[in-house]
């Protein structure tokens, strides 16, 4: 009987794996579609404003994922006390993120309430949609995840021409509105696919919130540090040079944006698998994490360089303007450092060592922003920014690798608040 069941099980694993990778590709395509329309239709200054708002969205999403979604990956989301604490955490973090987005749109963009309202709605819908996506990942329901992401892409692509026709001209508000429609559709479709046990009868509660927060605060800071550093870098360029310079920088980043989405998606999938292994008591093997790091770094370099060469050739006819080659290759180096450290960081998170992950990442960001600020203040070209941000990456990778290859249960894990060993 076993000999007949194994091939079916294997085929199911392959189908799930293909669906998981395809879902990440669809997510990348949805983001890339809107960014391509923005790059082609908006002026550099408007595109710079749109890029800053998009960076804030990514930062808010990362903070929310780190605090809420990674918490219900590591903790038991069905245990009543943890479930109530997770609901409270989701409401609190979402409210803070939406409020921050509203404030940024009102003060930075100059678009007033007309831009701020759809942007705040987009942030709220995006956080809800990401919650649904992560539930599919935790449940290892990658085919349902793929259907959800396809639905989001279809609605976003359908909403774009409709809103453009109503508006009469391409504006950041139109693009944000189309993204909001896609995120809302993902929430509705996701709730329809998920079993009622995942989303019915949710009630907030605070009994386990302090214990949850001891893990989640460090995880959120660690997850949000990189996108918030990028947001700070964009605001720095806007302040020291102009929003048009941000637009130049973003055109170069757009070239390798799909690679970044795949890296982030790989981290999400890896977290779910490593967390399941940790709960099952499987033996840790740092060599496997090292192989994953080399594979992700090497794949990032190859894919990034291919994308860069193609973009340098195709950007003039596609965007109507050329891209800065120095900035493009700088973003490739930046992503390679990020990809190399991601498997090590993910492994440490499953050990509930979020604080230990945060400190090397913080040093990475401080060094990068410090070098970038100094260089731009000395009138260096804007292309220096991604190279500056990549400088701290080498130390971060080395430190994270050292932590993973240390004792199976390091002292930091045993004493960190929220660790099962501390209890």
UniProtKB/TrEMBL annotation:
Keyword terms: Membrane, Transmembrane, Transmembrane helix
Entry keyword Transmembrane: yes
Keyword Membrane on entry: yes
TM annotation in the entry: 21-44, 50-72, 84-106, 150-168, 174-194, 228-249, 293-315, 327-346, 358-378
Protein name, as recorded: Membrane protein involved in the export of O-antigen and teichoic acid
Organism the protein comes from: Actinopolyspora mzabensis
